[in-house]
């Protein structure tokens, strides 16, 4: 039987401020990296279309 999912911890103080700033200002991703991710996604998608489970 599966274990219950734990509650998500609540952030306070400096930790909460850092988390919010990171969410508001994500690190930029280069065009090459985006292309790599898109190519990998399409490859995996092509492999899973004909899967029969």
Q: Please, could you describe this protein's structure?
A:
- There is one protein chain.
- This protein is mostly helical and 53 residues long.
- It is 57% helix and 0% strand.
- It has helices at residues 13-24, 31-48.
- The radius of gyration is 19 Å and the shape is flat.
- The relative contact order is 0.07.
- The model has no long low-confidence stretch (mean pLDDT 89).
Write the layout of secondary structure elements.
Elements: H1 13-24, H2 31-48
List keywords for this structure.
mainly alpha, 2 helices, 57% helix
Brief sketch in words of this structure:
The protein is an all-alpha fold. The chain contains two helices and no strands. The mean pLDDT is 89.
In terms of DSSP E residues, the strand content is: under 5%
Radius of gyration: 19 Å
- Give the distance, in angstroms, between the N- and C-terminal Cα atoms: 22 Å
User: Can you give the mean pLDDT?
Assistant: 89
Portion in helices? 55-70%
Total count of helical runs of at least 4 residues: 2
Task: Name the helix and strand elements from N-terminus to C-terminus, one letter apiece.
Answer: HH
**Low-pLDDT segments, ≥5 res:** none
Helix and strand content put the structural class at mainly alpha
Please state the oligomeric state of the protein chains shown.
Answer: single chain
Quick one: overall form? Answer: flat
The major β-sheet equals: none
The total count of strands amounts to 0
């Amino acid at each position: 039987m599966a274990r219950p999912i734990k509650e998500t911890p609540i952030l306070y103080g400096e930790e909460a401020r850092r988390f919010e700033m990171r969410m508001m200002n994500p690190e930029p991703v280069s065009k090459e990296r985006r292309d790599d991710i898109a190519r990998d996604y399409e490859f995996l998608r092509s492999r899973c279309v004909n899967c029969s489970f």
